[in-house]
Amino acid sequence: MLKQNIQMVDLQKQYQLLKKEIDSATQIAIESGLYINGPQVKSFERNLETYLNVPHVISCGNGTDALQIALMALELKPGDEVIVPAFTYAAAVEVICLLGMKPILVDVDPKTFNINVAQIESVISRHTKAVIAVHLFGQSCDMEALLKVCKKYKIFLIEDNAQSIGADYTFSDGTVKKAGTIGHIGTTSFFPTKPLACMGDGGALMTSDAHLAERCKMISMHGQKKKYFHEIIGCNSRLDTIQAAILDVKLKYLDDFTAARIRLAKRYEKRLFGVNEIVVPTKSSFSSHVYHQYTIKVSSDKRESLQVFLKERGIQSMIYYPLPIHQQVAFKWNASVLINIENAGILCGSVLSLPIYPEMTDEEQDYIIDAIQEWLATF
Predict the structure, then answer these.
(1) Are 82 and 101 in contact (CB under 8 A)?
(2) Residue 68 burial by CB count (10 A; 0-12/13-18/19+): exposed, middle or buried?
(3) Positive or negative CA dihedral for 120, 123, 125, 128?
(4) Helix, strand, coil tally for the chain in percent (to 5)
């Protein structure tokens, strides 16, 4: 087996595939001189609205800003409690703390890695104002169940859709909606490794509520509707014109990218399902999976061995995430744990994400799978 160099995501491959269109789009943006709020920004927002079938998309500087703007748009106050999963990237918890609010952590489903809806009611108090549902690794949380709880207690539902843009959620009556468009406000990130990615930082919010859309837009532009007239406290968070031009090109191919990821995921599953020491990802019954990550579970005493074995063969792998939120130093004194959070800790000790991206070849993937099987043969 000749050693290869396989990254988690090969960003150059996608650029080379779309080079002619991206170069043309960015050149037009550069020559226009309209680097902030150029026409490409509005064009991308409208095209994303069409793709997601949602009335309002508001672009912003990055996915973390999108989460902060969402909380501000809902007019939450310091001291308010926001429920969030303990197994997630830190951004959602970070913005809660930055705004003086209280993160209340709940566990996740050990199969889908998404928020455990059954635990939410037990931590709701008179201070609870919102739930942030993080659609992790490529598939939606159980939104129908979440909507029911949030409606019952009159609390807001925010979707962090940074990893699952394009995923479809199917309700029990057969209605299908895109992840990120179901709660009061959805957010996403266009970080370069995301399913829909720019070549820098970028993010967006989406909502069906015209009032919330207006507030999100104002907050992202220093609280202004009209330049130099500030009606509310805001921030400075804008998607620049060049990044919007790149995203407008890539959006046309998002479904193709997703189809390629799904095909690769099926190839992984075909050869790794039922293999000792490895558990392949579980797809929920109510959501499609866009496989932003292909995350397997490995016995905690063997995960490091597998990761080292792959690295020696030039194969990158990643642990998303090595520590649950309540064990992170930054959040130890801020985040509250009111119930048993067992699954988050177990997952942090067992998950391992393998390379998956639309441009990966079968030969590259076979090399990874062969390496895993070679490692298994050492036991």
Answers:
(1) yes
(2) buried
(3) negative
(4) 40, 20, 40
Q: What token pair was written down for 81?
A: 């409690």
Encoded tokens for 160: 């962090």
**Cα 226 to Cα 80: distance, rounded to the nearest angstrom:** 30
Closest C-alpha to 55, from 177, 169, 163:
177
Buried b (16+ CB within 10 A) or exposed e, 167-206: bbbbeeeeeebbbbbbbbbbbbbbbbebbbbbbebbbbbb
User: Radius of gyration of the chain from Cα atoms?
Assistant: 21
- Does 363 score more than 90 pLDDT? yes
- For 247, other C-beta atoms within 10 Å of its C-beta total 27
Q: Which two tokens stand for residue 34?
A: 């309209």
Domains recognised in the chain with CATH numbers: 12-106+113-251 (3.40.640.10), 255-376 (3.90.1150.10)
Length of the chain: 379
Measured on CA atoms in the order 243, 244, 245, 250, is the torsion positive or negative?
A: positive
Q: Which two tokens stand for residue 76?
A: 């939450």
Q: Each residue of 136-179: pLDDT tens digit? A: 999 999 999 999 999 999 999 999 999 999 999 999 999 999 99
| Three-class DSSP labels, 19-30 | HHHHHHHHHHHH
Query: Which DSSP category does 330 fall into?
Result: G
Residues 126/172, Cβ–Cβ less than 8 Å: no
Would strands 156-160 and 128-134 be described as parallel, antiparallel, or unpaired? parallel
The answer to whether residues 292 and 189 touch, using CB atoms and an 8 Å cutoff, is: no
Structure tokens at 131: 């739930």
pTM value surpassing 0.70: yes
- Give me 9's structure tokens: 């995501």
- Cα separation, 243 vs 93, whole angstroms: 26
